[in-house]
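Sample A.
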Amino acid sequence: MAISTDIVGTTFGPFVRDYTFRDLEICALGCGAGWDGETDLEYVNEHDAEDPALKPLPVFAVPLTVNEEVTRTLDYGFDYSGSLHYGVDVRFHAPFRMNDRVETYVTQEAIWDRGEGRGSLSKQVGKTYSSDGTHLCTVDTYDCCIHDGGWGGPRPPKDAVDYPDRAPDAFKDERYGLNWPLVYRLMGDWHQQHIDWAYTEQTGLARPIAHGVSTAGAAMRHVISLLFPGSPERMTRFKCRFTSPVLPGAVLRTQVWAMGEGRALFRVVDASDESAKPYLNAGIVEWA
């Protein structure tokens, strides 16, 4: 099936999700919260199931737009087997409740051609609203479909972040858990590259890879702990590109550069080889 730009500019939805504090906890667990039974328990301890009071990890915004239902609905002719998450840019407008029925409307904003052998690049924008109409978040999400380049479309814009010419101001190391993808996929990203060993062998990788959003969620925990600890609700923006696959078991190093009041840059590298291609790049975090 050939790439078609017919749906560019079209908004789909609402995509409705009923969630409770359990879903907030599953998302956080899939991003490594509580991995040692002690770290970042504020994201997974509801204290009282009848009146839960945990702190939602803000990355919960992303799977409301990035999930199997949305991917299958916004079909512009891409080869799903070659679909890779390319990056996100999330704006947070209001906090998530402990339980709610939310509606997400997703617009297919652009489809670009990266060239033969490099795939297509898609941009979708999801806007999520609470049951009382409050605008909770806006998620810009990008997907690269590696088998679908060279169809003659426009080239994508550049996406680069200029890091300071100095060592990071802070960093945090953490081993990505072997089973985190098995948990995170419960958020609705069922792609077999995250669970099926035979499927992944075809790509030449040693094992199923981490979800980009799960890795981003781990990095989000790190930057919160380094920049505004204990206050995830202060985050107003989180942006990054997924530039290299993470194999579970790798030790992530989240590097942070402070850039003034309420803004920092970050990236995630392999702690054992900082010169290797970063796992996450072009990272921006902002908070109030």
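Sample B.
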Amino acid sequence: GRAQYSCFPNNKGGIVDDLIVYKLSNEEYMLVVNASNMQKDWEWVSSHNDVAVELENASDQYCLFAVQGPKATTVLQKLTDVNLSKIKYYHFAKGAIAGASDVIISATGYTGSGGFELYVKNAEAKTVWDAIFEAGRKEGIKPIGLGARDTLRMEMGFCLYGNDIDDTTSPLEAGLGWITKFTKEFTNSEALKAQKEKGVSRKLVGFEMIDKGIPRHSYILENEAGEEIGTVTSGTQSPMLNKGIGMGYVKTEYAKSGTIIYVAVRKRKLKAEIKKLPLVTV
């Protein structure tokens, strides 16, 4: 089966949430949203269900394991008869893994490092968890938290809802024009189409620090003259680049790769350079 990254546009030009849509059959789809927005998204979908679609909130029935990295296929293949090497990026298969049945094995992830996301029924989750760590013992598998994942997704330029996109940011401003097609009508499509034709006034960009320092969420971005041109939405120290990196919105005229900008850190101005995303290629 196939999966598609997408978003729920709201009525004001912003984004309710971003999500992955799984096509399970011609008449059955699974929407995977951000856990922190689960109730918000359920209410949004329910309130916009004007064609009597049968809806079920199955969030509390499943666990999600993100087995990521270049060794993920080797490790997981020990636990399933499904040929994992045949599952293309943003495709999935259903099958047994570590004795658990009907697991959705999805070639997706939020790290840019390759791997799979496994949707496992709660009753079988501990068995699968233990089996994954036993299978990956030789390869040095480790449980990794959200901090590491956040660093990886920033190196790739992946948006984080609540930071880089939210109810006030347009998908076009956020560089998500590739999921904003106007071949059919959708919520606020006319306004977004008009925005595309007119052009956006700001764009989400990635940047690398030239001066030593780590950009943080809400720091002001300035031009050489000290004029405010935007705001940092995400920032961290990149282990791969050994320097500070960030994402943020800047006025469109400053969005070109190679443009020098400055991050206002207390009373200092730290030099940075706009870079084409992803910041790290693996």
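B remarks: The helical segments are 38-47, 72-77, 122-135, 146-156, 189-198. The domain at 154-169+201-275 is CATH 2.40.30.110 (Elongation Factor Tu (Ef-tu); domain 3).
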